[in-house]
């Protein structure tokens, strides 16, 4: 079963959920704000995409961190530790449980994967 990790009111997550709903895809939604981060899902995402891609440094949460915290993120372990504490730092959405792991939302790619039956 697909699991989409994200934050309910994130615009990108809303677009991704809308596409899955329109395609009648079966999935569960894991809201980081209510349920926290899933450490194993983060480890899997970091293993596939690299921790630098999973850690969202472009958002407000990263910019608000103090310099000492930012400098302390030097490897996967420190990145995951910080993302577990500050779930808004995780690139969204993250989709697990299918034929492939997805990070971020690309409407064209997702639509192709759904049409071809390659998402789940």
Automatic annotation (TrEMBL):
Pfam families, A to Z: ArsC
Gene3D superfamilies: Glutaredoxin
Family: Belongs to the ArsC family.
Descriptive protein name: Arsenate reductase
Species assigned in the record: Pseudovibrio japonicus
